[in-house]
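Tokens for Cystatin domain-containing protein. Go.
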Amino acid sequence: MRIFKGFIFAIFLLIGIRCSPVDGPRSLTRDNLESQEIRELVKSALRSSSPCFELVNIKSGTVHIENGIKYQFQLLTAPKPSCNATYYGNHISNLTVHLPASRFARPVFAIG
């Protein structure tokens, strides 16, 4: 949980996202998607929500300031060899990460 609080501050500083509450989702640039902060955020979310898959590549992503920070990513994932997966090869996954504005709320992850 502590790692995500640091992500919020670091991502705003390092990525330079400029959104107002009335703006819609903004696309993240390739540099944003390849940043260490975003990669760590995505890996942590995958470990929590889908432990049998590992990150291969982040294809695209958006960010939206909406009662916190809401990220949506399109990922290329692969099953971990340690899991008995019925599907082998790369897989496209959609990941949503919501970092609530309240410091008492936990991050919410959804993968589809």
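The CA atoms of residues 28 and 62 lie 5 Å apart.
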